[in-house]
Amino acid sequence: MKTTFEDRAVRERNRPLRALAAGSVGNFIEWYEFGVYGYVATVVAERFFTPAGGSAAEGLVRTYASFGLAFFFRPLGAALFGRLADRLGRRPVLILVVALMTGATALIGVLPTYAQAGVLAPWLLTFLRVIQGLSAGGEFGGAVAMLTEFAPPGRRGLYGAWQSFTVALGLLGGSGVAVGLSVFLTADQFGSWGWRLPFLLALPLGALALWLRIGLDETPEFREPMGADVAPAGPAVRVPVRAVALAAARVMGWSAAGYTFLVVLPSYLQAALHTGFRAALLATVVANLGFAAAILPAGLLSDRVGRRPVMLAGAGLVVLLALPLLHLLQGPGTPAAVRGAALFGAGAVVGLMAGPGPAMLAEMFPARARCTGLGLAYALSNAVFSGCAGLIITEAVRRTGNLDVPGYYAATTCAVSVLALLGPPKTKAG
């Protein structure tokens, strides 16, 4: 009997750590794939969206249109899977969405190109992007709910920050794989078949995520109202629309600045500033390193001083520094070290928003509406301001010739977030 009690005590202590791993690995897969797609956008454009006679710019715009379409299915996924998670529990829904996400990502790696399948090729790619968008919409709400509901007292900001931290790891993983392949393969090899390998790597990652999630218990906060070890299906609480709108506005700058600096940047540097493919990817790696370095400290700091002050600092710095950053990158005489420091700093200020962001969203909604509410807020913000970032920036630069468009875009959206964060407090921690 003593052994049973000891085993149960060890299991209880290990639950938060397993939840941390189970919630994080799904986010890693999601953002690894979204990052890879952004990093190889120029190759995808050539293989799927540029038939004979089409321009490279037109193909890139179509590629980003497909990229953005997946984001617009995120709110639908957040509503569908979020309601299921608020009614049936976090665990079964998280198992389902990671299986869908992994399958869709791996299938992209074996798709026929336009030269092989004609007009069917871009439609197949877009269909798989839609599946990814739906599953990603359910992933965020369930994962953040799991991480914050398993968090020890006073550590919600830190545990929630792991969601954002694995976003950074996923983007770094995607860029690292792309850079490595571009180094070891010739341009012809990478364009012919090498671009497929990063998508196929999702299979072993997905298997690991499934193993972790299948062995996970339901979250304590979801079980408590039912007074059972495994909560039966219960009614989901109505999601407050005003809270969703406020939450979306608060994370708008995080979404827009994050994708501008961390995902869209490689294609922007190649298309607008004529930077080489490898140099553009390395620049993005530096920005993502800054992003990753700031996230966990920002989450921990938010447990001490509140979510909003830390997020306000990040959004305010983007408003002030977005245009000077671009001018440094555009300057032909800017030393490489200065450019690297600027890119690292750009990623770090986005990390100030991304660290406290998940916990702030979780604290704005009750447990039985949490997955749906925070998932919808995040998905709507990402659909409009992340998914469309590449399309808006690429098309605006192409039409106007103004190379400052990315800076204006990031600064404007962060200014809106500043105003939303200064509004009435709606969270437990500020």
List the helices and strands and how they pair.
Blueprint: H1 2-39, H2 41-48, H3 56-72, H4 74-88, H5 90-108, H6 114-117, H7 120-150, H8 156-184, H9 187-192, H10 197-200, H11 202-214, H12 220-223, H13 241-271, H14 277-305, H15 307-330, H16 336-354, H17 357-362, H18 367-385, H19 389-400, H20 405-421
Helix pairs in contact: 1-5, 1-7, 1-8, 1-11, 1-13, 2-3, 3-7, 3-18, 3-19, 4-5, 4-7, 4-18, 5-7, 5-11, 7-8, 7-18, 8-14, 13-14, 13-16, 13-18, 13-19, 13-20, 14-15, 14-16, 15-16, 15-20
Labels describing this entry:
430 residues; mainly alpha; 80% helix; 0% strand
Largest sheet: none
Mean pLDDT: 82
Spatial shape: globular
Helix content: over 70%
Radius of gyration: 21 Å
In whole angstroms, the N-to-C terminal distance is 45 Å
Question: Which structural class should the secondary elements be placed in?
Answer: mainly alpha
**How many DSSP helices?**
20
Report the strand count.
Answer: 0
Strand content: under 5%
Along the chain, the helix and strand elements come as HHHHHHHHHHHHHHHHHHHH
Description of the molecule:
The chain has 430 residues and is mostly helical. It has 20 helices and no strands. It is globular and about 55 Å long.
Structure in a nutshell:
The chain is mostly helical and 430 residues long. Helices cover 80% and strands 0% of the residues. It has helices spanning 2-39, 41-48, 56-72, 74-88, 90-108, 114-117, 120-150, 156-184, 187-192, 197-200, 202-214, 220-223, 241-271, 277-305, 307-330, 336-354, 357-362, 367-385, 389-400, 405-421.
